[in-house]
Design goal:
The complex is a heterodimer of chains A (504) and B (470). By secondary structure, chain A is mainly α. Chain A contains 20 helices and three strands. Chain A is globular, with a radius of gyration of 22 Å. Chain B is built from 19 helices and two strands. The chains are: A mainly alpha (504), B mainly alpha (470). Chain A: It comes from Desulfoprunum benzoelyticum.
């Protein structure tokens, strides 16, 4: 338990987790759509503000879990309610809490049917998502990880597009099938660890090599599907395309990060030996994802699909950064997780705004609107540049660090990732060109109105973060530094212990 | 006092026998049934701390049996409450229906207390024969005519399983010279490796495998589920299975000395049940049939707890069967309400239920997600504990296969949820739900969630109950 810095006084993390859930209960009773919108906006905003109070108290110099809370839960099985934050998870929690109010804003007029039910799903989603990032008990983690599928299923299945049934079931089945072996792995770890589900207790233990390989496979299936890594990505375009805007944003910005977060939190510390052995395969899968995502994005006519495939490529960069296993790579990967959340989230919001006007996601029906929606094209232009990692924007910093880490690890590998960066520029500029200028025979777009103030407010914070991280990433990197250094120290220490033991 | 719950049920049965002689009004029958079920539950709760032996040691009242009596009585009360219109039963035989239901109940309550082979046999038959008669009592007004076929199938398979069981009992009696479970428990370790003892034990178990619908004694399930009235199916799906688990715990704790052979067979039965049930359920169009096949799969899961031969495994099995009964009752509550005339429901008949009856849609969804084993509901916690218990005994392969089955099962549960929430009502009218059904379904939902999130107290209770018989 020495990895925990117990929280004194007000249980901030628990409040963050349970406030949205408590807020959703009221909506079961009060069924007025207008009230539901304001109420959810209020609840998510309060959660966002509360989460910001974590920042001043967060100690950057320790790798321990802070603000930790520890209560017994199911005593007969030694399952505890234990939560805490470290440098890896704090940024993801802030990303989650800060993005939720804007998801609510983005659904303000987009969702017209069954508004209270939609808001209930959003609030339950928020509880589950924050919970996943702070859970330090493996059962608690798994429960929230799985429970999240239910509201997300409804978000896609009820408020989605024409092929919502197919997309929602595919999403649910894929994710569930992936994580089912995780459950077996959890129980195995429990029996191997003196009947404890406490995650830090499971790390850096010398499990037998075969067991590590099997555990890694179980982890990999669960997390690679969530990321999604090539070739487990096929649920993603379907889910993204059919989901309502808020659903796409949540999927892209937060749910995908859970996969990479899982790699960092579980795969590396629990199965270090297997990680070293299987690292090359994962790295080359990441490269495959980067190239494949880029090439398919280049061929899309549907804007949401284009961004969805670009996500496959971007997340390929993130897994690349994680598995090169050096400080640049991992810090770049964590930063890129945040960047992708900001940039792709904003792009999905932009596409949603177009869709609300033209009721089409086709690139061809949104061509040549630069003349009529100048504010909109400025914003989507900046976000697209950020997505292709233009210097000065957030993604440039992340991608640069990842590539630096990759070059330190293996030059051919890093060279193989470079075409991905070029492809990103190609597909993003192609989309921008079509949206802003189009061709000679554009459809008549003169009836389109530019963004209203609600929509500008929705996008403004994203813009702010794009430039903040792009120009001054230091505060963000400082938050995660101790935890990442500690992770790598432990990892290399473990490897040395293994080699030393091997010599005798 | 020891025999009070049984006497109450018997009295209630006699009351309904008297009612069958006259011509009581609908309302009288309804109210009598609900009142009687409540009184039975009350007496069961009242007698929870009783202990003692009756009938020369053939009948034992202990915490284990009393808890099961409460569970059986509570589940019966729920069935009586939501099925109180008896829409699916012939008009003129409704009092008789209650009479047989109570007789079956009596049999089940006696079964969990029986500790002697003949007493077990008699109690089991008492409960079974009453249900055999209840199945064909379904009305033909909805155009369903295969209730007779279902009844005959149920009877034939049942009698065959009972035959196996009696045959096994005769072997055991021949080998040990006694019919009391205590006496058998003393002698079995000596006989452990004799093939005859193993065969006899398995044959006895088969009688209860039949009740619980474990492969290869599952053949009756789909037809009986489909052919019986919705209320009858609700009863069959929930109540006798609890008693079967109770008896299986008593019997497998005897078999625990018999080593590899019995264990391997139980494992095979468990895996086959899961795969058979889940794969068959994937293609079903009829809701009750689907639940029937899913029941086979769940029975396989329960076996996972029994074959650990450990206290925690048994406790998980008890927890799971109670959770299973709750989820099934919730599903059948919805079925009974939606089927206005007592007809069978296809999955497509549920389309747009979220508009037609929001509370029922919520109940059904919670129950199905729970059956699928999604947290935070009782189905997940139960499944988790069963897997954990089995992995503690190093059954890694078994646990992996069971986990894979969870993934298979999700598809057919989801397709029902999809119908209720993600599709339009297609012109189907609103469902009339009374206050009783609504509040009952909300209670069930609450219990499913609370038991899932806070299982400790129930597991502790089950463990202390099982300790009394080990």
């Amino acid at each position: 338990m020495d990895q925990l810095l117990l929280n004194q006084g007000f249980p901030l993390l628990s409040t963050l987790i349970f406030l949205p859930l408590a807020g959703s209960l009221l909506l079961f009773v009060v069924r007025d759509p207008h009230f539901a919108r304001y109420w959810t906006l209020a609840v998510t905003s309060i959660v966002a503000l509360l989460s910001l109070t974590l920042l001043p108290k967060f100690d950057r110099d320790t790798a321990a879990f802070q603000f930790a809370e520890h209560h017994p839960w199911i005593e007969s099985l030694n399952i505890t309610y234990v939560i805490g934050v470290d440098g890896i998870s704090i940024l993801l929690i802030l990303l989650t809490t800060l993005i939720m109010p804007f998801c609510v804003l983005a659904s303000w007029t987009y969702i017209k049917d069954r508004v209270p039910a939609f808001m209930i799903c959003m609030l339950i989603m928020e509880t589950a998502m924050i919970g996943v990032f702070v859970a330090l008990d493996f059962v608690l983690f798994y429960i929230l990880w799985e429970a999240m599928l239910i509201p997300m299923y409804f978000l896609i299945g009820i408020w989605g597009g024409p092929r919502k049934i197919y997309a929602s079931i595919k999403f649910f089945l894929y994710t569930l099938a992936g994580s089912i072996l995780l459950l077996v792995a959890i129980i195995w770890l429990y029996t191997a660890n003196g009947y404890s589900f406490f995650i830090p207790d499971m790390m850096w233990k010398d499990y037998p090599f075969t067991a590590q390989i099997l555990l890694f496979i179980a982890f990999f299936l669960a997390f690679a599907i969530k990321v999604p890594m090539f070739p487990f990505h096929t649920w993603l375009p379907a889910a993204h395309v059919e989901a309502p805007t808020a659903g796409s944003v949540i999927l892209a910005s937060i749910l995908l990060k859970m996969g990479t977060y899982g790699f960092l939190r579980f795969a590396l510390p629990i199965t270090p030996e297997a990680t070293t052995t299987l690292m090359p395969y994962v790295l080359w899968l990441s490269i495959a994802g980067i190239i494949y995502g880029g090439l398919t994005a280049l061929a899309q006519q549907d804007m949401k699909k284009l961004i969805a495939y670009s996500s496959v490529g971007h997340m390929g960069f993130v897994t690349l950064g994680i598995f090169v296993l050096n400080i640049d790579g991992i810090e770049g990967a964590i930063l890129q997780m945040i960047n992708h959340g900001i940039t792709t989230g904003a792009l999905f919001l932009c596409v949603g705004m177009i869709y609300e006007r033209t009721h089409s996601r086709e690139l061809s029906s949104a061509t040549g609107i630069g003349q009529y929606m100048p504010v909109f094209v400025t914003l989507i232009g900046i976000f697209s540049l950020s997505s292709l990692a233009f210097p000065g924007t957030n993604s440039f910093v992340g991608e640069f660090m990842i590539l630096a880490g990759a070059f330190r690890h293996d030059v051919p590998l890093a060279l193989a990732a470079i075409p991905g960066a070029v492809l990103a520029a190609a597909y993003m500029l192609r989309m921008l060109q079509k949206i802003i200028w189009g061709g000679t025979n554009n459809p008549d777009q003169s009836w389109l109105t530019d963004l209203n103030s609600r929509e500008i407010i929705t996008l403004a914070p994203f813009l702010f973060f794009v430039f903040w991280i792009g120009l001054g990433p230091q505060p963000f990197l400082a938050m995660m530094h101790s935890s990442v250094v500690n992770l790598l120290d432990q990892f290399h220490g473990y490897q040395q212990a293994i080699t030393a033991a091997g010599m005798y | 006092m020891l025999f009070l719950p049984e006497l109450t049920i018997l009295g209630a049965g006699l009351l309904f026998f008297l009612l069958t002689l006259g011509q009581p009004s609908e309302a009288t029958i309804k109210n009598c049934a609900s009142a009687v079920a409540a009184v039975i539950l009350f007496t069961c709760v009242l007698c929870v701390n009783q202990t003692g032996n009756l009938f020369y040691g053939a009948y034992r009242v202990d915490l284990f049996s009393q808890i099961f009596k409460i569970l059986i009585a509570a589940a019966t009360l729920v069935v009586f409450l939501f099925g109180n219109g008896l829409k699916g039963i012939k008009q003129d035989s409704r009092p008789e229906y209650y009479l047989f239901l109570l007789v079956s109940n009596l049999g089940l309550v006696m079964l969990v207390s029986s500790v002697e082979l003949l007493a077990i046999f008699i109690a089991l038959e008492l409960s079974s024969f009453a249900v055999y008669i209840m199945v064909p009592m379904r009305t033909t007004a909805t155009g369903i005519f295969f209730q007779m076929e279902a009844g005959i199938k149920y009877l034939l398979f049942g009698v065959m399983a009972t035959g196996f069981m009696l045959f096994g009992m005769s072997y055991i009696f021949g080998l040990t010279g006694t019919t009391s479970l205590d006496g058998i428990a003393e002698q079995l370790p000596i006989l452990a490796n004799r093939p005859a003892a193993v065969v006899a034990m398995l044959m006895i178990l088969s009688g209860f495998f039949y009740k619980l619908a474990i492969f290869p004694f599952h053949f009756w399930v789909p037809d009986v589920y489909e052919g019986a009235a919705n209320e009858t199916t609700a009863f069959i799906a929930a109540v006798p299975k609890m008693a079967a688990v109770a008896l299986l715990i008593r019997l497998t704790s005897l078999a625990s000395h018999q080593g590899e052979m019995v264990l391997n067979l139980l494992m095979v039965c468990s895996i086959l049940s899961m795969f058979y049930g889940n794969l068959s359920a994937l293609v079903q169009k009829d809701l009750k049939r689907m639940l029937g096949f899913s029941g086979i799969a769940h029975a396989g899961f329960i076996l996972l707890g029994l074959l650990t031969f450990k206290l925690t495994g048994y406790a998980s099995a008890v927890y799971y069967i109670v959770g299973y009964a709750l989820m099934n009752l919730a599903c059948f509550l919805v079925i009974c309400q939606v089927a206005a005339k007592g007809e069978n429901l296809g999955i497509s008949d549920l389309s747009g239920l979220h508009k037609r009856a929001p509370i029922l849609a919520l109940t059904l969804t919670v129950a199905l997600f729970s059956l699928a084993g999604i947290p935070p509901f009782v189905g997940f916690t139960g499944k988790f504990m069963l897997l954990l218990g089995a992995l503690r005994e190093d059954h890694l392969l078994l646990v992996t296969l069971a986990a894979i089955n969870t993934a298979i099962a999700i598809y057919y549960y989801l397709s029902v949820v999809r119908m209720t929430f993600c599709s339009d009502s297609n012109g189907l009218g609103n469902v009339q739900t009374g206050f009783l059904a609504n509040s009952l379904s909300l209670i069930l939902v609450t219990v499913i969630i609370v038991m899932g999130v806070a299982p400790s107290w129930f597991v502790a209770l089950a463990e202390s109950a099982i300790k009394t018989i080990l």
